[in-house]
Design goal:
- The chain has a domain at 29-227.
- It is built from 7 helices and 9 strands, in the order αβαβββββααβαββαα.
- It has helices at residues 4-46, 62-67, 163-169, 172-181, 207-227, 256-259, 264-291, and strands at residues 50-55, 69-78, 84-93, 100-123, 143-144, 154-157, 186-199, 240-241, 247-248.
- The longest helix is centred in the N-terminal third of the chain and has 43 residues, at 4-46.
- The radius of gyration is 26 Å and the shape is elongated.
């Protein structure tokens, strides 16, 4: 019995050291996060904005939301202009059964004054093994080719029939700007916002880095003024008189055919369902013939 006591003491000592190490690491990580939040809160306040943490209310564009599950903005700065600069974290099914992997993407969301076609610019530069490309779930038939060497830097997805409209947003000077300063970012035009996003967190306790993000957002906010002037020619643009004799403004927004890009997963499901139906009909026909 006396020989067992030293062994038990050793095990207890090892477990105590491991627990102390775990809690020390957890405490250090918590302190780092809270120091970051205090720094970002001070920075946002100096710009007249606000900081939110661990929020579901501030969300980026559709690509990031649809990509995983249990998503939230770990940190997001909202500026007086409505621009949001944040880090979006979400879970995605891991490679091993029953496991999930966490991903963080930084994003800059710029509001528009009107709805625009759903366009996605998938950067060829920011592809990583640990991150899923922006166009991973989109149908390849929606890819359009643009002039110059732009296709070497971005793969552009546009709804069917909206290729010419995409040129309104991706003018030669805009494409040159994207190549010069934004090849690390994927870009999504969706509803009434344009979202820039890239793998990894972007909000850090570094004022110089934050200044660069704000300047980047301001650059594209200026472009957003022109983008907001686009109107969908597929909608009736003629004012009319209703049954009560009142003048009705022309329709605004975007036709449903341009509001969302087609998801390749839905197409795959559709093909699978069609195959099952065809096989089922053939089997039923064969069985009916054999019974005669």
């Amino acid at each position: 019995m006396g020989e067992q006591i030293p062994g038990i003491c050793v095990i207890a000592s090892v477990l105590t050291v491991l627990m102390l190490g775990f809690w020390s690491a957890a405490l250090a990580a918590s302190l780092r996060i809270h120091r970051l939040w205090r720094h970002l809160d001070r920075y946002a306040t100096t710009l007249g904005g606000r900081l939110e943490t661990l929020t579901y209310s501030a969300r980026p564009g559709g690509i990031l939301i649809a990509r995983g599950q249990a998503g939230l903005s770990r940190t997001v700065i909202t500026l007086p202009s409505g621009v949001r600069i944040g880090d979006w974290e979400y879970l995605r099914r891991g490679t091993q059964p029953g496991t999930n992997a966490a991903y963080t993407w930084g994003y800059i969301s710029i509001p528009l004054a009107a709805a625009v076609p759903h366009l996605v610019l998938d950067s060829r530069r920011n592809q990583r093994v640990s991150a899923i490309g922006a166009g991973a779930d989109l149908r390849r038939s929606q890819i359009i080719s643009l002039e110059g060497d732009f296709d070497r830097h971005f793969t552009v997805y546009s709804p069917e029939g909206y290729g010419a409209d995409a040129l309104y947003f991706l003018t030669p000077d805009v494409m040159r700007d994207l190549i010069d300063v934004a090849t690390d970012w994927d870009v999504e035009f969706i509803d009434d916002e344009v979202v820039f996003f890239r793998p990894g967190p972007i909000l850090k306790a570094d004022d110089a880095a934050l200044d660069r993000l704000v300047a980047f957002a301001a650059r594209w906010t200026q472009r957003a003024v022109a983008w907001s002037h686009w109107r969908d020619p597929r909608l009736d643009s003629t004012p009319r008189i209703d049954s009560h004799g009142l003048l009705v403004s022309p329709a605004s927004g975007i036709h449903h055919s341009g509001a969302r890009l087609d998801d390749s997963r839905l197409a795959t499901i559709g093909i699978g369902v069609s195959i099952v139906l065809v096989v089922g009909m053939c089997a039923w026909t064969i069985i009916d013939m054999l019974q005669r």
